[in-house]
From TrEMBL:
The keyword Nucleotide-binding applies. The lineage of its organism: Bacteria, Pseudomonadati, Campylobacterota, Epsilonproteobacteria, Campylobacterales. This is histidine kinase. It comes from Sulfurimonas autotrophica (strain ATCC BAA-671 / DSM 16294 / JCM 11897 / OK10). InterPro entries: HATPase_C_sf, HATPase_dom, His_kinase_dom, HisK_dim/P_dom, HisK_dim/P_sf, PAS, PAS-like_dom_sf, Sig_transdc_His_kin-like_C. Residues 237-308 form the PAS domain. The chain crosses the membrane at residues 18-41, 53-73. Pfam families: HATPase_c, PAS_8, PAS_9. Keywords: ATP-binding, Kinase, Membrane, Nucleotide-binding, Phosphoprotein, Transferase, Transmembrane, Transmembrane helix, Two-component regulatory system. It catalyses: ATP + protein L-histidine = ADP + protein N-phospho-L-histidine. Its EC number is 2.7.13.3. Residues 385-600 form the Histidine kinase domain.
């Protein structure tokens, strides 16, 4: 259209230009003729008449020429105007179409839920409605009045972009690292939103504009935190194996609502041994679960797909899985559910626990060896206690027998006195026999929990240690609030109590205390019985208080301590009795708390 207007203007200009040149030439000629006549005084009629006729024809000719070409210019002008009107109409139609497409494109951009901006690297050129709504402005102009860059909304968080990164503006930084995942946090309505940013430079013009999109992944971050929390529980239960395995990477899988694999990470691929095309999009349970569990897995997953609920969600499971080639191996698995597009998907963390189970067996074997060592040490202590308990009765029996022998030799035989002394000997031998029975019962291992009164366990403990404490001038105080039945491994409870009482006795002896005292207090609530054993030996130094339950750690090495007594006591209480053994310092000395369930759960006693 602009070219047409230029042609019209140029055509008119050329015509009028030459027309006026022609008039100017005629005028100059007339002036020259008049000057010639004036100087040569040529006023003859024979000259003036032809000259006037010539001049008249000279002036009349342009008028005649102009009259002749005037219709041509008019026709040309009309054609040009028609062309101009046609092109103007086309231009208006094109403008309307362009305006329609621009509005249509803006509507599409505004419909995108992600924040979108177009920038030249310094100024924001275009934004969508999502960006204005998030930042709280009605128009881009209103936004620019208060802000120069959307980066002013960035919040400093771990792994998130800031306005300047490594000496570059945030956009330049993103464009320089296109393979990286770039995240940013921004505040909206007092809530922090996490975004993934993508940027692309427009290549269809030379304006160097870039399109930047901010995808809100706040909800996904919440799911990741939930899964990380679940994974943390799994890791805490296996801390003792973390140092050996030296790996915190688990196999991660995602199944859709039909139980088909839609995502796995490289660890899962390494663990199962399949190529992606062999397992992706296929029924995961049929491929990985043992055949005996196929039907149960199908029923459970169908319920989960309908309701998002399941008995195993959030729990740590120990199962078997089958890798490529048919090899079955043990795994630990924790599951979580997530709803995507209205459908429930499951996310699972798997870990190969083959090495863990192997180590667990080795640790169990090691614990059995240490338990045997502990029992041998306990037997040595008991032999010493037997010697203490038997010394006085044996001495009394020996003296009674010698007195009877002297009476017989002197002929002083009094049946009544003989009966009294013999009855005393029988009483003492009965005591010795009972002592043997007490120690034999203690050393006999319990294969199943037995039901006893709390007072019976107290008596069993005192029958073994009481004499030893008396011989060392140590006072034993006991307190039982009220008697009640307890179902547990009673001999193990007695062994732990004896270990702790003997430790207190040894500390009192080492410190050569004259007023050594040990107290045994038993109490209970509806579910738990608590045995509290305290001494008045001044307590345990704070720097070793947290180490006293470690194996082979002893404060009595110079006195022959093995460092196994308290360690095995804790193993027995926590592993076998399913209770808790703890220690603290009171004002007078150390106090040990043994808490065991009143009703032992046999299903949990196999550790």
């Amino acid at each position: 259209m602009n070219n047409l207007l230029e042609v019209m203007q140029l055509s008119k200009g050329i015509v009028f230009k030459y027309f006026f040149i022609f008039l100017s030439v005629i005028t100059i000629v007339e002036i020259l003729v008049m000057i010639f006549l004036y100087f040569f005084n040529l006023n003859s009629v024979w000259i003036e008449a032809p000259l006037d006729a010539f001049l008249l024809s000279l002036f009349s000719y342009p008028i005649l020429v102009f009259s002749a070409i005037k219709p041509f210019f008019k026709e040309m002008n009309n054609s040009l105007m028609q062309e101009l009107n046609l092109r103007t109409k086309e231009l208006k139609n094109s403008s309307k179409k362009l305006e329609f497409h621009q509005n249509y494109l803006q509507d599409i951009i505004d419909a995108i839920p992600n924040i979108m901006i177009v920038t030249d690297g310094h100024n924001i050129v275009k934004v969508n409605r999502t960006m204005l709504k998030f930042t709280g402005f009605d128009t881009l102009q209103a936004f620019k009045q208060k802000h120069e860059c959307i980066c002013e909304f960035f919040i400093e968080e771990n792994s998130c972009l800031m306005p300047f990164m490594e000496g570059l503006m945030w956009l330049d930084y993103i464009l320089s690292k296109p393979a990286n995942i770039h995240e940013v946090s921004m505040m909206h309505n007092d809530k922090v939103h996490r975004f993934i940013i993508q940027a692309k430079t427009l290549d269809f013009d030379e304006t160097n504009h870039s399109v930047v999109t901010f995808t809100d992944v706040t909800e996904i971050e919440g799911i990741k935190k939930q899964l990380n929390s679940s994974n943390k529980i799994l890791l805490e239960n296996e801390e003792k194996f973390r140092a050996i395995t030296n790996s915190a990477l688990d196999a991660i899988i995602m199944l859709d609502n039909r139980g088909k694999l839609i995502f796995w990470n490289p660890k899962a691929k390494d663990m199962l041994g399949y190529e992606e095309e062999e397992i992706m999009g296929k029924d995961f349970h049929k491929i990985v679960a043992p055949k005996a569990f196929h039907e149960a897995s199908k029923v459970a997953y169908e319920k989960f797909a309908r309701t998002g609920e399941g008995a195993v969600l959030g729990q740590i499971l120990e199962l078997s899985a089958i890798k490529k080639g048919g090899h079955e191996f043990p795994i630990s698995l924790i599951l979580s559910g997530v709803q995507i597009d209205g459908e429930w998907h499951s996310i699972g963390f798997m870990r190969d626990i083959t090495e863990r189970n192997k180590l667990q067996g080795e640790i169990k074997q090691k614990d059995e060896i240490m338990l045997a060592q502990s029992r041998q040490a306990a037997m040595g202590d008991m032999i010493s206690m037997i010697a203490h308990q038997w010394r006085q009765p044996i001495t009394a029996i020996s003296m009674g027998a010698q007195n009877l022998q002297v009476d017989i030799e002197m002929g002083d035989i009094d049946p009544g006195r003989f009966d009294t002394k013999l009855a005393k000997i029988v009483e003492l031998t009965t005591f010795l026999s009972k002592t043997i029975d007490d120690f034999r019962d203690f050393l006999k291992p319990n294969k199943k929990p037995d039901t006893q009164m709390l007072s019976t366990i107290v008596k069993g403990t005192l029958s073994i240690v009481e004499k030893s404490l008396e011989n060392n001038n140590i006072i034993l105080k006991q307190s039982l609030e009220d008697d009640i039945e307890i179902t547990t491994f009673s001999n193990e409870v007695i062994q732990v109590c004896i270990n702790i009482i003997n430790n207190a006795k040894d500390i009192i002896k080492i410190k050569e205390m004259d007023n050594g005292t040990i107290s045994l207090k038993i109490s209970h609530d509806e579910e738990t019985a608590t045995f509290e054993i305290c001494d008045n030996a001044g307590g345990i130094p704070e720097d070793i208080l947290l180490r006293i339950f470690e194996p082979y750690f002893s404060t009595k090495e110079e006195k022959g301590g093995t460092g196994l007594g308290l360690y095995m006591s804790k193993m027995i209480v926590q592993g076998h009795l399913k209770g808790i053994l703890d220690v603290y310092n009171s004002e007078e000395g150390a106090c040990f708390l043994i808490s065991v369930p009143l009703k032992h759960d046999e299903e949990k006693s196999d550790d």
